[in-house]
Amino acid sequence: QQDFQFGDYSLLNFVNISDDDREMVRRWRNHYDTRKWMYSEHFITKKEHCGFIKILKRETRNAFWVVRKNRRGCLGVVYLNRVDFNNRNGYLGLYANPDCQYRGTGYHLLQCIKKLAFGNLSLHTLKLEVFADNERAKKLYQKSGFSIEGVLKGFVFRDFGGKSDAAKK
Questions:
Q1: CA-CA distances (angstroms) from residue 20 to 5, 25, 146, 168?
Q2: What is the pLDDT of residues 107-116, one digit of tens each?
Q3: What is the crossing angle of helices 46-56 and 19-30, to 10°?
């Protein structure tokens, strides 16, 4: 539940941000270009979002941060899930502010979460999950040193006019 500062970057924990910032984050998360890549792609209500943040206040294995860059505004969100401090690993995630015009936003978000995970939290390994058709994200992660360890086929159900994502060819 801590905030962090890395040079020009501020990572503000969701439990510490203002109501206006929480609403801004909810708007980003509900943006089509963000939610289409999430396991939960439904529109998140204000009540649901407030409940989620309330749960985060008690969490020890999951944390979310808004990333701000001085003079450039908010870049997006980074998060760690399923953190195992005994084995020093966890899963990372990120999404950009859909209104951000800053080139390389994904790269900068990824650098922030890596610095936090490996530096401040002393994790040893970070993992992530990406939909097979999210070419942009796969390219970013591979360029940043991540490698493919496995593929989960038909793991997430998506209803495309009566056909699941797994049924798409």
A1: 21, 9, 34, 40
A2: 999 999 999 9
A3: 110
Measuring CA to CA, how many Å separate 33 from each of 29, 41, 75, 122, 143?
Answer: 9, 10, 15, 32, 22
CA distance 76 to 10: 11
Query: Is residue 80 within 8 Å of residue 63, measured between CB atoms?
Result: yes
| Entry pTM | 0.88
Nearest-CA neighbor of 23 among 32, 14, 35, 13?
14
**Tokens 């798409």 identify what position?**
168
Rounded to 5°, the CA angle 76-79-83 comes to 170
Helix (H, G, I), strand (E, B) or coil at 68: strand
Q: Model confidence over 24-82: pLDDT tens digits?
A: 999 999 999 999 999 888 999 999 999 999 999 999 999 999 999 986 689 999 999 99
Beta bridge partners of 65: 13, 78
Beta bridge partners of 74: 68
